[in-house]
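so my prof wants the structure for this chain in the tokens format not the other one, which i didnt know existed until like an hour ago. anyway here's the sequence
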Amino acid sequence: MFMNLYKRCLAKITKQVSIHSFVSELTRKYHKLHVRRELTRAQKKEIQAYYKQLTGHRVPLIWHKFLYSRTNEYSKKYIPLSLYRTELIGRMNQFWMMEAYADKNISEMLFPDVKQPKIFIQNLNGYYYADGRAITKAEAEEICRNLASAIIKPSMSTRGHGVRKISVQDGVTDIEGKTIGDVFDSYGQDFLVQEVIEQHEAMSALNPTSANTIRLLTYRSDMEIILLYAVIRIGQKDQVIDNESSGGISARINPDGTLAKYAYGAPGNDMVEKTDVGVTLDGYAIPSFDQVVETAKRLHYRLPYFNIAAWDFAVGKDGTPIFIEWNANPDLSQTANGPAFGEYTEHIIQETYKKNNSRNEYW
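here's what i got, hopefully its the right format
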């Protein structure tokens, strides 16, 4: 009994500390904005009444203020990150299953029937594999001894951390002249080496040096998979990855597969109407968008422990959707898209609050 009380108290304290940290971090980002807008008294009252009815609690207003400032669009339905991280995601998804499912090295086992980049070698828990068979490190080095162009990346990280484009000739890489074995050692364990995607010309035109990916957020409600939003992530000129941390930008993809007028980068950067290489965003058609959406919905049914999931897809030269990765603990692209749950906000929050919060065991 005492131990259960101790765990509940610890979880409550840790949760409050996390909320304070989320609020502090976004407040710092808010003060970096070129334009900082304040909420009116009526807007503040509307937001608090809305969330009090849905959750029984008031919410920090900094997310509404931040997103209103960045986009000049006010909505009471913006999802505060503090609410999403501490209450919603743990009820939507089973935290105890996340780490195993998040490993990019098992994507081929989860989704064997969807096109994915060819994997040359994998490292799982320190062990090397190729084509489904266990191999030695020496064999892995030999497989990667001559690669004109490849991607090496950690298999259990997010936001593009550790993703690098490499070439290897006679076992020597273009990373400071290190051998491929030295590069493997620098990644330690849990990583993979895969081919560079040849993307559709319409996707490449947005920025030729990066794989410009479609990010979808889907939600499972009973037997229905709902597309909550879709955004395009476009890399900065001469960059390999498309994440905001590397100067990338994101723009909403409309239901008809065309892009919205504006894209957004990291906080503090202005919204833009063109990519770094000069392509106008407004109305730009994304190839095979409907196929990408249908593929993500089909794959989501294979994830019974996760009601919300983010999906990254590229589009191949022939227009075929190429699965890149999925995320069981996704961020929300509310700057580019608007309110993350849109017209489903009330339904999702009410449905989610009926479930236990699996995150309470992990504070």
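also thought this was worth mentioning. The first helix runs from residue 2 to 30.
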